[in-house]
Each structure stands twice: as C-alpha cells, then as structure tokens.
Amino acid sequence: MFVIATMIIECKENFHTVICKVKTTFEDHKGHDTGPSVGPASRDAFYPALPEVCRRGKYQLDGKKGEVPFCSKKHGRHPTLLPGIFTVFCQHGVCYGYQIMKSMESPNIPFTFLRTRFEVAPEAVIYDNACNLHAYCLNRDPAFFARTQFAVDALHWFNHIGCSMGYESKLYPKFKSVNTQIVEQNNSKLKKLKSSLSHMIPQNFHACLRFFLWNCNREMTVHN
Ligand SMILES: [Zn+2]
Ligand SMILES: [Zn+2]
C-alpha cells in the first residue's frame, strides 16, 4: 500500500494568471529553477513557491493519547515500504510541491503545511482525511482556521462511513467541477511511478519525483 494523498487548496488567481505563473511554481524565491535538480534533498518537504512564513508551534494536545479521531475511515498500509506522498495542488491543477508521509495519514503533515506556509489560511481545503484534519486544526489554532472550509474529495468519500455529510464535497456546487478530476488525475499519474519510487534511495526518489511533478506543471502550459 502506497498512499498518494492529494490536497487541493483554493487559490485566488484567475486561470490565465495561473498559467503564466505555472513555470515559476518549482522555482525558489530567488528565481532558481529547482525542478529537475538532482542534488541531495535535505528535507522531506518540497514547496519551493510556498516558503515557510512562521513556525508550527507547540499545542497542548500534541502527543496526547486521548485525542480520538473524529471519523474512523478505513485505511491500510504496507508493512515495510514508505507510507506515501502528500501532494498539494490548487484548484487549477497546478502542483505546489510534495512531502513524504512517514506515518500513516497523520493530520500533522497537512496541518503543519497550512499553518506554516500561509499568512492567512486558504478558504477551502479538499483532502482525503479532511474531517479528521478539521478537528485537528480546530483543536490547535481555531482562530487561524476559523474561515477555512474543509471537504473530502469525491474519490475517497466512500471510505467515510458514518462521517458528517457536511464534509461531502459533492454537495457543494462550488467544488463540483474542481476536485474529482485533479485528485483522480494526480493519483493515476503517480501510480505509474510508485513501484519504482518505492525502491529508490532518498536522493533518487526526490530527484525523480521533482522532475515528474515539474514536468506535469510544464505540460499544463503547453496544453493551454
Ligand atoms: Zn490556482
Ligand atoms: Zn470522515
């Protein structure tokens, strides 16, 4: 089992501006192209266009055993291979980067991403584990996430047995056109890579994945 968790964040740009900006998504803030780089990756998180703006901080509930998941959705994992990759897209289908998930779908990775790389939280977050992520966020920084709407993508909704229907993205007309396609397309693209990625050393893993995602963004500019 190799999980590809895709998060979609709402960006405020219109599609035309986004297409012009796609090429710079994998460049760092100095304008260096970090796409097909083969240097050793120092960290597991790679979001060149979204630098950290603050630290995550520590919260009272961190590490406490009493935190019961809000929704007990089904999941499984491979006993020895890496649990998976967390990727971030905006609603226009632009990939903003990725991160290695070392533990199975912990809301800590998406929480840390949202809390440390945005001055103001995105208006909408569509994610496989959105229900548990929402509870995790509100239990830590309710003021920061007060205006963010969380929804589960249509592809993974069937896993959420007994979940609140307020998280079903299909019920919101504004999410209808967006989410299913991006999550499905990304999952099917990355599936082609996963058997090779699973057996690579870290440097090759990062170089290969960066190059792949950089090229997916590049192809968007060619087709539009
Ligand atoms: Zn966008
Ligand atoms: Zn749920």
Automatic annotation (TrEMBL):
Alphabetical list of Pfam families matching this protein: KDZ
Highest taxon of the lineage: Eukaryota
The protein, known as: Transposase
Species in which this protein is naturally found: Potamilus streckersoni
